[in-house]
Each structure stands twice: as C-alpha cells, then as structure tokens.
Amino acid sequence: MFRLGVFLLTFLLLVSMATSEYSRGRIMARASECVNECVESGHNTFHCERHCSNT
C-alpha cells in the first residue's frame, strides 16, 4: 500500500512537471512568432521583444 502511494506521488509530480514545461514551451513559441511577425512589419527587434513580452 505504501509503495503504491509513493508511486502515485512520483507519477503525479512527473506529469505536473511535464505539463508546466510544455505550457512554457508553448508560451515561448508564441512569443517568438509574435516577434517574427512584428519584425516583418518593419519594427526593430528590441521594440518587438518588449511589445511581445507585454502581451
């Protein structure tokens, strides 16, 4: 019974870590997409990074 509890806790911890890494990855990808679109429309990279981190 104790082993099962430890296993479940470990499993849940791994799942939550994987989920947060995934969502952080999605946010980073969205930010770089934002910067790329912004630069393509003629702004400089610094402006775009600031603009994209605010949204």
Overview of this structure, please?
The chain contains 2 helices and no strands. It has helices at 2-40, 45-54. The chain is rod-shaped and about 60 Å long. The mean pLDDT is 89. It has one domain (2-54). Its main location: secreted.
Question: Can you tag this structure with a few keywords?
Answer:
55 residues; mainly alpha; 89% helix; toxin activity; neurotoxin; signal; secreted
Describe what is shown at a glance.
This protein has helices spanning 2-40, 45-54. With 55 residues, the chain is mainly α.
Report the mean per-residue pLDDT as an integer.
Answer: 89
Cα-atom Rg, whole angstroms? 19 Å
The largest sheet is: none
Structural class: mainly alpha
Order of helices and strands: HH
Helix content, binned percent: over 70%
Give the termini distance in whole angstroms.
48 Å
The share of residues in extended strands comes to: under 5%
pLDDT < 50 runs, ≥5 residues: none
Helix segment tally: 2
Shape: rod-shaped
Number of domains: 1
**DSSP summary, beta strand count:** 0
Q: Topology of this protein?
A:
Blueprint: H1 2-40, H2 45-54
